[in-house]
Amino acid sequence: MHSIKDSELHIPERYLRTVPVYAEELELDETDPFFFDHPVDHVPGMLLLDGLLSLAERALNASESTSAIRYVAELQLNFQRFAEKDAAIRLETVVGEGFDGRRRCDLQALQGEAPVCQGHVEFRRSAPAMASRSAGHADAPQVPAPADGVHKHHGENIFITDLHPTEDQRYRARLLPLATSHALHGRQRDRRTTLELVEACRQFSLLLQHRVHATPAGRPFILEAITARFRRAFSREARLDIVARAGQAAGTGNAIQFLELYDGDTPVGELALSGRAVSPRLYARIRQAHRAQTSENRP
Question: Which Pfam families does the UniProt record give (predicted)?
Answer without folding.
Answer: AfsA
